[in-house]
Amino acid sequence: MHPPSQTAPATPATDERRRSHRPLVTAWSQRPATALRSIVPDGDWSSIDRRLLDSFIAQATRESAATDRAATPWPQPLFSQYSAYPLIGERLSYETAVGDRLARLSRVVVLAAASAAGVAVAAPLDPLAEVADGLWLLAEQTTWCWAAHDDAFRRFGTVTPSLDEPFLDLGAGEAVAAVAWAIAVLGDELDECYPGLTDRLRTEAEQRVFQPFLDRDDWHWLGLDVDPDGEPVVLHNWNPWILGNTIAAAAVLCSPDRAELVIDRAVDGIDRYLAGLPRDGAIDEGWEYWWNGAARALEAVETLDRLAGGRLALDVLDLLPESLRFPLRMQLSADWYVNVADARARGDRTLPFDLLHRWGRRLELPDVVAYATAHRDPDAPVATDRAGLGRLVRVCLDGAWAVADARNATLPLPLPASVDLPSIGVSLAREHDGRSDGLAVSLKGGHNDENHNHNDLGGVIVALDGVPAVIDPGRPTYDARTFGPDRYDIWCMRSDWHSVPAPRGLLQQHGPEFAARDRRGGDHGAQASWSMDLAAAYGLAEHEHWRRTATLDRTASRVVIEDVWTLDDPAGTAVTLMLWGDVTEVDQATLHLHRPVAGVRDVMLQHDADEVAMEVVRLDDAMMRSSWGETITRVRLLPRPDADRLLVTVEAAR
């Protein structure tokens, strides 16, 4: 079944492996010397998931001008939406409009492909004509770059994109990939019915994506930058996300020689990302960003393997099994996660679990297959139109995923008794191996210059029955502050809004030197415990210390959070707990937390603080409300003036 704990060896991202290990370049360079194949997987469009098809038909019927002159027009991104980012820092409206346009294109491409395969598409529209309209609109769209990423504002002082020097970002990668996948699936029919359309799109792709990609070496996501010590900068999800889309697009839209040039450069870039991944498979961006980081690298490998006729030497990619296990290792239960960095606490069943299912099958990883299968609802469509066209095509043609059924799973949801990920300093232990009932505790180390960082070292998350009680609030909707110099002005990025201490009332600071030190611990059966010194996270003096320990006592069914300190002047010291639920003070030393989820037990927290300060925080951000609803509670525990330790225990209410 599953081992009682999962501790994988870690390799620092800046060691010799990063400089010398080039697995994807090796695999690609050793491919058979034949022409590139189609990027479209083998599969049968006539076997497409009927629920998905019916949902797309219903949406297309509502949108089709053939049925109603007042039907919904194609989404049109507006200049006012684009310029809202440089003018007022708002990015969501433009990205939503662009996303709506790509989603509609995805739907009609699938309908056209199914129709061409002989599937009855009972809708009053011509799917191929709709595809042509969507592609034409993309060709006419002023920029494929998302406003929040465009460097024209900084370089030229404008609120308009540069047509001469387009910026290659996630949005441009998604747009060119949508064009490529549509042509890969429907190109012959498009050329027959609309001569010149695909040539126009190839021209746009060359000007907006391929030429800028080859011309510039200063794309920060290429991995060519180095830090002050001369080490390569640790890469984030932009690298495989953009490069994977560029590979697929080049294979379809470029001439063979041009495609080889673009793909070789992209492979080299993704290899720098892979070489920076630690051996334990973790990524510092959090579990949710795995799907647009490591998962995007896996999709690029799938594309390359397809182009090589299924003969890519994948045995050199020895880090794949541990990477595939990262999302399942961050589970608290089927729908809740340890949400470090910018990840959300609540899971999303619309994520492309088919990717994990395919790779789990391919590498014979039963726990990965079980995790993916547990998220396959056979009563729901097999995917959504928001997945991106490449992901949607893959899932439509994956027959094994189409028949996967969580109700008939042969293996339970993999919930290891403990997980230790040294590379990011994150640990997790649960009361019962393979079950979400009972207590679970996570403790976070690392440093405060990680990708998507929050100043949250020493942060604890405690769950009961698979649902968080002591929480990490997560992130709000992105805006201009999120990735700029004002990031830590956002309240939920600061340490005083995480379940961490505040020595002398100090906040943690941002930077690699603000780090957790001397991390120790492990799972010893009856108890699992980890500890770390947090003094450096607050810039304390060298002789001052703050050690935090989080322990799961399985025998007593109790979590213990212990802080022990040596401070020159402890005045103003506090320990913060962020809680989800209705909090009441039973007595001076006891808090009762009533859970907001039906069927989940209440929580009792006991402490030896001298004073308790509580405030209910009303959430007005949609992203945060998607996890927590309307409110969360901040509790600040104030120790006695002469104290040098504080103890908190968490148990199920009796």
Automatic annotation (TrEMBL):
Signal peptide: none annotated. InterPro entries: Chondroitin_lyas. Residues 1-13 have a biased composition (Low complexity). Transmembrane segments: none annotated. It comes from the Bacteria. Residues 1-22 are annotated as: Disordered. This is Heparinase II/III-like protein. It comes from Plantibacter cousiniae.
